[in-house]
Specification:
It is a single chain. The strands form seven sheets. Strands 17, 18, 19, 20, 21, 22, 23 and 24 form an eight-stranded antiparallel beta sheet that branches. A four-stranded antiparallel beta sheet has the order 11-12-10-13. Strands 14-15-16-25 form a four-stranded antiparallel beta sheet, with no helix packed on it. By secondary structure, it is of the alpha+beta class.
Length: 535
């Protein structure tokens, strides 16, 4: 069982992820469906924004089809897959769609591009864009009243104050259920005509950006309640309320109006004290599948009642959401499953594991004793993007330094692209460093053994490989021997080549995977790989 899990969830996924992300870097953008349209709510809000700008002597902003499409996608992503981290605002994007997941924090300059560049990534929009969000279910007129009463939002709407140096040239509006999203862009969109919806608005498939019928839509289900459960790997997932099964401390059948998610009990208790005047029933709750401390304002016997209360909240609490209580019998099953995984979990503990850092043009990892140059003009994937990759791969610890008490299954330590993700190039060459814990795979004793496992899984995949090496060569970097495997394929008329370098260090299979299309790209990658050193 452990061997099968290792093959399927670790070796195979990590070996293919480099290829998948290579393609997404150059093919992230999708074609905007012709049927994209503005519903009645969006039309009303656009008219109100235009009227407000006119009252303040600001010019009319043309509708952008690209920004409209992005707004509609994000409204649905926020409704179904909201990120539950107090450091990530609602401008963040989940890992449930075809886009790159990211955490936006206005006070963190390293995370600004999460918002600014998302329309460019998804549609190829040519400039930066800025987003405002309302989560509460009010009518357009009420939303505008609230926005106009806030100096921050009114400045955005009419290009004043901190946004006086901006000149909005495009706007896109998306409304879904109780979430309303408006994007303001700095450059004109040549696709500035968006038809009004006639009849029911089409559904959007968040997995690929296409339209779909209601029974084909991914992550666009009818549930409007967040239920936090744990998947087989212990990762948080947002699922339908009917599947609530791991919320300990919450009464089964109850629905909780949540406002705030904190990393410590101390912060959560302080928040409750501040809220107690207006919400005397506010209390801290925890769940078995998360280390977060959440604030429950009220509890209700039906999700409809909870949703109605959420929609009536003051604008100050637009970030609130509904959490479904758990099922005690299912909780017991989860506990039994955790006990059954106990042996495998214990083998995963690694003391002083290190994800490494990039500093002064070099990636350094003390745990594995390695260092490699990172070209100054190349793009290092952010911690959030690495977390997304790790989550896709399966068992891992998120984007933080692990301790001796944490389980390390597999992790992506570094991923670097030649161009920013979403740049229009024929192929965005890249390299990555991954590690896989071998405690549950005793048959793998060398880099050669590991590559054999990778090769087997690649052959069984549906990817159009034209060549996968059966015999491996060796290369030595600073006295450390690596085995090398080459693969190649043609995808969308573009030749794609990969090189897998593998060795064993501290009980982990350490892989460096390069992906390129042309001989020039191959040479540049080889120059980078040759800077690899060990201490």
């Amino acid at each position: 069982m452990i061997k099968e899990y290792f093959h399927t969830k670790t070796v195979f996924l990590l070996s293919l992820l480099c290829f998948v992300f290579s393609l997404s870097a150059s093919a992230q953008q999708v074609s905007i469906p012709e049927e994209v349209c503005m519903n009645g709510f969006e039309q009303q809000l656009y008219a109100l924004i235009d009227s407000y700008r006119g009252e303040n002597e600001a010019h009319k902003i043309e509708i952008s089809k690209k920004l409209t499409f992005v707004a509609k996608l994000h409204a649905r992503d926020l409704f179904h897959n909201r990120i539950d981290k107090d450091s990530c605002s609602m401008q963040s994007w989940s890992d449930k769609g075809f886009w790159n997941a990211c955490c936006f924090n206005e006070r963190d300059n390293t995370k600004q591009s999460c918002m600014w560049d998302k329309p460019k990534e998804i549609t190829g929009y040519a400039g930066k864009a800025y987003e405002v969000i309302y989560n509460g279910g009010s009518e357009p007129k009420r939303i505008m009243e609230l926005w106009k009463g806030s100096s921050f939002y009114s400045d955005i709407l009419k290009n004043s104050g901190r946004y006086a140096d901006k000149d909005w040239a495009a706007i896109g509006i998306g409304q879904y259920k109780n979430v309303t999203v408006v994007w303001f862009g700095e450059v004109e969109d040549e696709e500035n005509e968006v038809q009004n919806c006639s009849g029911t608005e089409p559904e959007y498939d968040l997995k690929n950006g296409t339209l779909a019928t209601s029974n084909e839509v991914a992550d666009n289900g009818s549930s409007d309640v967040t239920t936090l459960t744990a998947d087989g790997n212990g990762n948080d997932e947002n699922t339908d309320a009917d599947n609530a099964d791991s919320n300990t401390g919450l009464e089964s059948g109850k629905f909780y109006l949540i406002y705030g998610s904190y990393s410590t009990q101390e912060y959560a208790d302080a928040a409750v004290r501040q809220l107690s005047g207006q919400f005397p029933q506010a209390r801290v709750i925890t769940t078995s599948d998360s280390d977060r401390y959440r604030i429950a304002l009220y509890e209700y016997t039906s999700k409809e009642e909870a949703r109605d209360a959420q929609n009536k909240l003051d604008y100050t609490y637009v970030g609130a959401w509904v959490l479904a209580g758990g099922n005690s019998s299912a909780q017991n099953n989860n506990q039994q499953n955790e006990q059954g995984r106990g042996i495998e979990q214990k083998t995963k503990k690694k003391v002083n594991f290190d994800y490494g850092t990039v500093r002064e043009g070099k990636y350094v990892n003390d745990y594995f004793g390695l260092a490699i140059d990172v070209p100054s003009k190349w793009t290092v994937q952010s911690k959030e993007q690495i977390e997304q990759l790790n989550k896709m791969a399966g068992k891992m610890v998120g984007g933080k330094e692990a301790t001796e008490n944490e389980e390390i299954g597999s992790a992506t330590l570094l991923q670097v692209f030649q161009h920013p993700v979403g740049t229009k190039v024929k192929y965005n060459t890249n390299f990555m460093i991954t590690v896989v814990n071998l405690d549950s795979a005793p048959q793998i004793k060398s880099g050669s053994n590991y590559l054999m496992e990778i090769a087997t899984q690649l052959e069984q995949s549906q990817m159009p490989f034209e060549n996968i090496d059966k015999e491996f060569t060796t290369e030595t970097f600073s006295s450390k021997e690596f085995y090398l495997m080459n693969t190649s394929m043609t995808y969308n008329q573009t030749p794609i080549h990969q090189k897998y370098y593998a060795t064993i260090i501290n009980g982990f299979a350490v892989s460096i995977i390069t992906a390129y299309s042309t001989p020039e790209q191959e040479k540049e990658l080889e120059e980078i790989i040759n800077t690899l050193s060990f201490k």
